[in-house]
Specification:
The chain has about 325 residues and is of the alpha+beta class. It has one domain: Sulfite Oxidase, Chain A, domain 2, CATH 3.90.420. It contains eleven helices and twelve strands. Strands 3, 4, 7, 8, 9, 11 and 12 form a seven-stranded mixed β-sheet that branches. The termini are far apart.
Amino acid sequence: MFFRRPRSWEIKESQVTPKASYVNRRQILAAAGIGVGAIASAPLLPKLASAQEVDPSASLYPVTNNGSFTAGEGRVLTPEDTATTYTNYYEFGSSKNIWRKAQDLPIRPWTVVLDGMVEQEQTLDIDALLAEAPLEERIYRHRCVEAWSMVVPWSGFPLSWLVNKAKPLSGAKYLRIETFEDSKVAVGQRQTWYPWPYVEGVTIDEAANDLAFMVTGIYGKPLPKQNGAPLRLALPWKYGFKSIKGIVRISFTDVRPVSFWEEINASEYGFWANVNPEIPHKRWSQATERDIGTDKRIPTQIYNGYGDQVADIYKNVTDRRLWS
């Protein structure tokens, strides 16, 4: 007889917020006696909804949920309005309330370049990429280096699928990932003391891990601009600043990339950035985190609770900055 051993992030279906609560939100509100007019008068929803309605990928969502990825013991989905309005996106400013500013970003046309140590450079149209990619939904925990967290239903595809599509050469060891640069609409990019464009990097082994996920949607809809549309990265075992938004280029290289925050302050933001409650940030503890959906303070888990899936990647790494 076969006995399946649950993975560390899995919980019973009854413990996860029902999918209908975010996919069919308008129907739920209507059933509660709240009309369309009331929905339209809500202060945050109209502009967010309009941004999603014009997204040409809207017909692709919702996508099939992969039940192997759930919230984890004691965690529930963060409300959509919270997760889509409380965001870091320094291209639009340093506050959490940048969602309005982000609406000015044009996300069509949009291309993603795959270059560097690959068989042949490719420039991919985002809609052609979405039509080809194996889209699915995964529920992930997200842990910010600032010690707040949320639980989000991302839609997208494995980063490993895109790596295979790029056909990297055998000597490639890293992915250097770069965001857009457009200071006309991204007002934060007018701050010349930052090293624009935003750059992040991962190793080939990290990119090959099943958890590494290219995000194109959220809550059963296309990804809003303030959350990184049309393409961002999710690495749930790492601090959130590694999850680069608005991706336009992925370069394969044998030289370790210097990440945006590492270039600004390498003593506080190292390349690896794996979640570890035992190693504090230079200015605050990482032992606990605030769940922005419930406002509860909860213990932080090593690798954000995904150690069973990623710890082997780092078994031969002794550098303390693994956790920076």
